[in-house]
Amino acid sequence: MAPTAAEPGAPAPRHAIVGWRWAPAWILTYVALLFAPGYAEGVLTLGALTALVKLALARFNTGARLLSDPAWALTSVLFAAYWLPELVSAIDAVDPGRALREAAVDLRYLPFLWLVAAAVASPRGRRTTFGGLAIILSVWTVDALIQWVAGTSPLFFGIDALKQAISGHGMCSAAETAAADRLSGVLGPCNLKLGQVIASFSPFVLYAAGRRFGSAGWLLAAAAVGVVVVLAGSRASWITYGLVLLLSGWRLLGWKRLLGVFAIGVLTIGVLDRVSPQVHERLARTAHVVSADVEGVDNALSGRTRIWRAAWCMVGEHPVNGVGARGFREAFPACDPQPGRLTSWGEGPALHAHQLLLEVLSETGAFGLLMWLAGAALAWRAWAFADARAREASRPAMLALLVTVFPLNTHLAFYSTFWGGLTLLLAALYAGSLLAQPRSE
């Protein structure tokens, strides 16, 4: 007897949403290569081209489909909310050529996001993608813990040795290695973003541990990831990870046990303050917030108040469409509230606003903020109208995206290649997993 459509191994019914079995490999390779941003961008670009060819061929196929219409629409809309402000900002940007180049190059994200959404269109693809991300982040966490104990990241040591053998020089310069003030892990001392990456992607690890091993597994994973985030991350990543614990832990542990988790976390930070000079320095700097003068607050925030005042100046001078995507550094000298004075971050202008809303407003203006808010509203509407099954399937991606764009925090540059690509990846994982299949009534 031939298998039915519901049986394993049965052919997909006509017009079924099945995704693409090789799509998860592109996503996982892209994330795994973040230690070498150039190679990661190459994988992204090749994935985008492959997605275009695959979707063009699928257009003439009347059988199973790669992506549902709602997932395709939401993914495209979220991309437009990110990309159209770039394009409009180029009209009278401080550096129109660069703004136009940024907009042109970022067009590759659209087919790549379709590829990401197709990767999680089927239950099998979603398990592979989410499980693979959990494994990658778990390996990076263990590697960072080894670096904390032994002083060297095994993964980065191997990568650096391979780079030395191939090109005759390492991944990072001696000056960058000497200047590293936190745990760098697999990303290396010249790309000190391990804390932010692990904090934003930690929902995939915690949900995987919770599903497989229950509350004990969640607690163990939360402790290991938390130590790495504190040692490797900026204080912004501490806030990000605190949100992850809050929003993922209460459903599994309940409020009382979750309060105990946070109490243990505070004690752990106290211990790390004693044994880690870097953690002690960041906590001591944070204590300056209680200072009565502006200089003390600015020092506590690593010069952020000076940058934010400059951002507001740009908003006032370019309220409609901003100074141009990635034009913050060119516009900063004219808006610097303390010109000629030594900055808290070293020499040179500030590179971006270090805050999502101010980055969008200063670089893309009110138009950009309206587009971002429209994208957020549509993402929320999709969640509100989705059924319980779809919400549960997409919960890790939803939480990862939510904490990454949480506005009451400081951020990396969302219009940079590194952080912009990861944020759009999370947006596509959310849209693709939430709207993978038709709503069940």
Automatic annotation (TrEMBL):
Domain of life of the source: Bacteria
Cell location: Membrane
Record domain O-antigen ligase-related: where: 221-373
Keywords: Ligase, Membrane, Transmembrane, Transmembrane helix
Molecular function in Gene Ontology: ligase activity
Topology versus the membrane: Multi-pass membrane protein
Membrane-spanning parts: 27-52, 129-150, 218-246, 258-276, 366-384, 396-412
The protein's name: O-antigen ligase
Source species: Lysobacter firmicutimachus
